[in-house]
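hey all, quick one before standup. I had two proteins in the batch that finished overnight and I want to keep them in one place so we stop losing track of which output belongs to which input. First protein below, input sequence then structure tokens straight from the run.
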Amino acid sequence: MANMKPTSLNTGRSIVPGSRKIISRKRRMRWLGIVAGVVIVGLLVTFGALYLLPGAGQGKRCRDEACIVQAYADCEPAYLEENIEGTTAVVAVQDDCTISKRIEELDPDEPEEVRTLFQGAEMTCIYPEDRLTEDMVTVLASTDYCSGELADSIDDLRLAELTYG
């Protein structure tokens, strides 16, 4: 009984002086914690979304193939997002002076077999110095200096076209 605070009989509220300030301070701290949490989550989501965008973290954004050729010659990270007949691909010069090519999204009208074969496929290319041309930057260009799932799929498709017309 000694530890109990005196309360008003009508309201059940504490009649100890200053107790409202303590409650008010607790509410304020709770709201500040909630606001801080929302702000932190918002920042994490924003920066996470920016990092996950195509090409994010891959250096400068190029507008044409010539920019990629120059970035490769200078061994500077850069990327080019291409849209070829409804198919989105990203070509990027990496930190290690290689070029990665990746199919991000295929045209929805493509057959399911093609979508399964190419969706998300990637290849890495290492071209000899001064051998990279603007024509070779395109994702579906020659796979002579490339390896990876995308290179294998392109080669298989070309072989099938040659074999079955």
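OK second protein, same deal, sequence then tokens:
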Amino acid sequence: MNPETRMMRNKLVAIIDDDVLFAERLAALLGGLGLQTVIVGGGLELISVLSIDRPHFLLIDTMLNWINPYELIDSIRKNSELRDIKVFLMTQQKDFERTCDRYPDILCIYKPSESSLLVEKLREEIVKNESA
């Protein structure tokens, strides 16, 4: 097993998306790279994942029908125990750039077309955190 795969094996990625098919495909892609994944489809599950599982990364869809993703991000940032979780935003919206301007430190990707960019950025974050 190469060092990168070994580093990735210990990382948990929470996929917060109500598009089940996309979430499952993304989980399979990330799982194939050695990352652990959990798909979050509701509020109680989100609370459990954040408080018990403590993921390293959150991949949050901007079009969730059960929670406002921007309020979720703001709440995570206000919580001293959660603010170190790296957040990525995913969307199919056309005017996504305005949303990204609100969060300049968050990677914003178009789904599903930029999944390879997401994988690249996750790898970079893992390597950066492991060498810090």
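Flagging for whoever picks this up: The longest strand covers residues 86-91. DSSP finds six helices and five strands in the chain.
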